[in-house]
Amino acid sequence: MIPRYQKIVVLVLLVVSIGMAAVLVRLRERAHDRLLKGEDVAPTTAPAVASAESATLLVANDLDGGMVTETQSLPLPKDSEARARALVERLLELYAEPDATHPVPGVPRAVLQVFLLPAPESKAAPNTPSAEQLAVVDLAGGFVDGHPSGIFTEALTIESICGTLRANLPQVAEVRFLVDGQPRGTLAGHADLTRTYLTSDMTRPAGGGNSN
Known about the structure:
The chain has 2 domains: 1-42; 52-211, no CATH class. It is built from 4 helices and 7 strands. It has helices at residues 4-41, 80-95, 141-146, 151-168, and strands at residues 52-61, 66-75, 111-118, 133-139, 172-179, 197-198, 205-211. Helix 2 (80-95) runs antiparallel to helix 4. The longest helix has 38 residues, at 4-41.
């Protein structure tokens, strides 16, 4: 004959097992419901792509030490900061091409971000058409580490970035640089990255333009 306490233990275990099974079934139903809900709210169309616009790039030319104006059709975001980043990113992509007039090794996402801030010396009220801006260009460490060293080549890179920003965003009067979000002394040993560059001081284009 089975002792009474063993019958109680078996009964308790049976109740616990049934309870756990019910909980597992309920959890599976909730997971299935979440999956179906995720399918319902998932977008059925592709996200909108920025429309192509005419952009002016000031491309450095090592042969004469000047800038060549290139007009390209690029998909540019409406947001000014995102637009500035896309412009500088495209400029640096040109430098990584095999036939570049200013060869600089490229890296994925060479420009981490571009911040547009009110220029410290601007006399106009912020957010007005005449308000001048300071662009803070945050370059990727990989791009800076691979940049050729030399006063001439480093200066051309800086000038072409500043000139391209000014050509497309006339309100950008000043430019500063960061590397991986932090200040760095020089680009590759020469060009000073601790100073503020005035876009009005940048080299004027030395060559004719072309369109792509």
